[in-house]
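Human:
Take a look at this sequence-structure pair and walk me through the tokens.
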Amino acid sequence: MITDIKKKRLVMWVGLLLIAALTVLSIVGAFLGAERAKELFNSPALVFFWVALTVLLTGGMLIFGRLRREAGLLLIHSGCVLVLVGGMYSSQAGHQLLRGYFGSAKVPHGYMAIFEGQSENRIMTIEQINMMFRDLKKHRRISPDDQSYLQKVPFQVRLHDFRIEYYRDKGKLLIYTQKRPAGQMKALEGEEFDMGPKLPRIRILRTFRNFRVNIKDGKREVSDEIGKGENPALEVEVNWPDGKTEKKYVFERFPDFNVLGAGKLQMRYVLMPKDYFSDLEVEDGQAGMLKTIEVNKPLHYGGYYFYQSDYDHESGRYTILSVRSDTGLIVVFAGYFLLCAGVFWHFWVRKYVIAKNR
């Protein structure tokens, strides 16, 4: 017969081995990349591993009386169990289980691409979104039913405006000859760059946050209309060795326009984005909500979190949202709360209480 002592030792050693395996899996997953790591951690073998670890932690609280008597240890182990249960509940396998047994239509993760002034309710994979954009570039007329998607949500998400906030003091003007790098300079007014005896000298005359062209009295005038959008640009003077001078506007969003000297010289204006903002409105019959989202500040509605993920790098006409199901997240958050509370109690409050009662 297995004695209680042997049973406890067995549980302890198995627990240590599973924790060691979890450490190795975490390291391996960090080098696999997001997609391959996702496949690994949702594989049947790893599902068995998560269940076994959850059962072992739960069984340990029943077998070891100290884990039940000391509040800190009880909170720590309970928190770990909740994190594991919530993680399995919110995983791809968990959503498939909910779909199979309870008819849930939610998907664990996807993306939503929305053009300014338009509404969308389809959750797609990133591959489906890229295919949609390829069709649009070919000027193919697409109806919503033409595109494949993962799921439709029962409400519409409308994009009123998308904008980017840049680090203004970290811009660069990149210079190429025959599409090969030839140099770079800070994107600041008055900066100059001499490319050598056979190439021009380049000088930045003016910087624009929001370049606009206005027609006044039949004449074209350029202006910087701050507060009405973002169209970063540079006014550049190019002085060729033969004495010819050209003035060029180099746009951050339209790199194909920045060609000089019959294609001999190309320039690209690069700014480092600081933050992205999408002004969203949820259209859900009578109810709805307005919210401006940015990185790490999502919109939560209808069982999903909508995160700012990507955008139209050429003209800023659309936003790409990362859509994540909230299924199981409340259990995970509760687990982390108990885990932190247990650690705080066990290593600080407990020692204070013991010292006070002596």
Notes: The chain has three domains: 4-101+328-357, 109-161+274-325, 164-273. The CA atoms of residues 11 and 59 lie 8 Å apart. The helical segments are 4-32, 34-41, 44-63, 65-69, 71-90, 92-102, 126-137, 329-357.
